[in-house]
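Shapes recur. One chain:

:::
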Amino acid sequence: MSVFLIITVVIALILIYMYIEAGWLKVSRIDFTKSRKGLKVLHISDVHINMLRISTKMVKEIIKQENPDIILMTGDYIEKPIQASVFLDFLQKIKQSDKTYICLGNHDYKAYKGKNGGKDKGRNEGLEIFIREIRNLHVEVLINSSVNIQKNSFNYNLIGIDDLREGNPDIKKAVEGCCPAATNIAFSHNPDLVLQLSRKHADYFFCGHFHGGQIWMPFGLEFILLRKDKLCYMGIKRGLHKINGINVYINRGLGNVEVPLRFFSRPEISIYNIP
C-alpha cells in the first residue's frame, strides 16, 4: 500500500470520526451542592441551527428526563435570517413554558446586520422581529435585564447580559432590578465578559462561544489561530473555573460553526445544581 493511499485512508477515517463526534452528545453534571432542594439548571449554548448534528428529539428527551427548574440558552442560534424559522421550531419543541431564558450571541447579531456589514451595534427591525417571535413562544429574552425566581425558600436572580462582541453589554443596567437577598446567576454568550464582573454582580456565570475548541489542534492552535478572546490566552477554554471569585462554566455548545465536525470536543448540554 502506497504512502499516499495510507494518508488518504487515515484522513478519511478522521473525517468520519469528526462527523460522528459532532452528533455524540454529552450531558455534563456540575453539582455546586449535593442537596436536591436547590435550583436545577439545564444549559444549552451555540445551537448554530444550520450545522446542528444533534436531533431535536434527543434534546427534548434529555430535557424531559432531567426535568430542570429552568433552561438557560446562551446565544448563537442562527447565521442568517432565513434560518430563524428553523430555530424557532427547534425552540418551540424543546422549551419549557415560562421556564426558558435566553440571551443573544455574536452570530445572532451578525445575521441581522445590513448589507453594508457596518459596525453599528444598534438593533434593526429584523432582529427586533426575531426577538419578538422568541417571546411569543413564552421564552424570556434577557438582554441587560434580570428576573427573580424562587424555589423552596431560596431566591435567585437570573441576569442576562448582552453579547460582549456584537451587542451592548450593560452590567449596571442588568443588575439594577435584582433582589438583594438572592443568589445571582448571570449568563451571557462570551466568556470574556466575566473579566468585567465581580462577586457583587454574580455568584455564577454561564456562557459558551468557544465551542471547547470544536476541532482540537496541538498546542492550542485552534484558539491561537482563530480567536482573540482573552480567556483563551489565559488557558481558560472550557468547563468549570473560578474567576474573580465567580463560579464560571464555559459550555462547549450544541452545534457547530463553519463545518459540521468536531474533534475531541463533544457537543454538550450542562446541568447545574445550585444551592
Remarks:
- The longest strand covers residues 145-151.
- The helical segments are 3-21, 56-66, 84-94, 106-111, 125-135, 171-175, 221-226, 230-233.
- The mean pLDDT is 94.
- The two ends are 60 Å apart (CA to CA).
